[in-house]
Amino acid sequence: MSKNSLPSGLEFRQSVDHMVDRAIAVMDLDKGIANAIKACTSVLQVTFPVEIKGKIEMFTGWRAVHSIHRLPSKGGIRYAHSVDQHEVEALAALMTYKCAIVDVPFGGSKGGLYIDPNQYTRDELQDITRRFTRELAKKGFLSPATNVPAPDVGTGQREMAWIADTYKHLYPEDVNHVACVTGKPVEHGGIRGRTEATGRGIQFALQEFFRHPEEVKAAGMSGSIEGKQIIIQGLGNVGYHSGKFLSEEDGAKIIAVIEHDGAIVNPDGIHIEELRFYLNDHQGVKGFAGGKYIEDGSSVLEMKCDILIPAALEGVIHKDNAGNIKANLIAEAANGPITFEGDRILRSNGVKVLPDAYVNAGGVVVSYFEWIRNLTHLRFGRLERRFDEAKGNCIVHALNEMTGKNVPEHIKHNLAHGADEFDLVRSGLDDSMRLSLQEIIDTYNRDEKIEDYRTAAYVIALSKVSRSYLDIGIF
Ligand code: NAD
Fold this sequence. Notes:
Strand 7, helix 8 and strand 8 (253-259) form a beta-alpha-beta unit. The protein is an alpha/beta fold. 46% of the residues lie in helices and 14% in strands.
């Protein structure tokens, strides 16, 4: 293990492969096909200069394409010092399986730049991002048809807007240029509901889990999300949105939040919105008044809770601490937060895990919707919203006339509400997360050789990807 007990990119990639091998072992899958699915199709490494404060600095980035059985290949771009070729390959492989699990017709890809974005100004980051974009586009690793990035750790809407704009200037004749990247600001071709999509997807996944009383019981819990004690690691995009929705809308209690400088613990529940404001203002959680500060954040992963949501880094639950985890259920909001060895220990201790390749797929589901919106050049709901509204009003009117009473206001509102883009995105995301978990649970319960939800999810993904190889052939 590398420093801080966190795995290196190579260990991460091997961990993903070992987990997939567990699924292959319970399937009747041709060995050649299995190897073809597991292999990373291509990897680009680029090193380029950018002038920063009058000096030339060199930057290195990667874009891995894990699979092209469906196009475009899809996956985020990460700006971090953890990035290396192996990490990008591991994340690209996860994207292949993730897209298959939630029925998004994309191949898997991922990119990264070795950089600490906090060391650069906005303008410098813009220069670096635009240069990286040119490298990717010129070398065939960026286009609406073949390879479409999205935000990940260290990047967001702003970087996606720079990527889209750079691509547009390179290829103005491409009528679909805006679809070369997803996760853009709404004003620049993004879709409503994308920023919070991964967190929202985690909420929908947990809501679906609690609709299965047998599974909830097997995880040592009962009832609904309401009142459940949750610990979140990482209050970035994914951790913040999932924590906010689960506490504000489902009545869960966020009893601890772990950040890079320590943790805040409060058995009565932490106000997520306030902590997020504090974190933004102070670049850390130390000093936040709404709970007790604990310097050793990783020790808080081992606190008793119902649901643990690691939403920061990979490899944080490993062979040295997995045995101490007291959560009943882990929702892997981050990519690869549990190592292969850690996973084995959790399984033998009866800790249930909703795997990353399923539970954090909300982002790519809504990215898919954004890509379709960009290709159609039409906002979802634009054609039918007022029509549906008029039809709803007609029904309300008919009910009033037939009963001689007025339909209550809240029912009237629901009936006469034409769905806008936000409603449709949320409904499509909910549907995707529900159906996928139902399929995972069915697969898990159908075959006793399948010991956990992760293996069930990979069995589903491998079956779908292998079908595409077998139907079309390898050429
Ligand atoms: P982010 O950069 O917005 O947030 C990461 C958070 O983790 C930050 O608040 C950071 O301060 C915190 N952090 C860093 N080091 C930490 C440590 N040692 N302990 C605790 N917290 C620490 O990133 P994000 O987009 O929220 O992504 C988080 C994870 O979710 C990553 O694994 C990413 O690949 C995965 N993911 C993200 C998306 C998405 O749509 N953004 C989609 C799927 C998966």
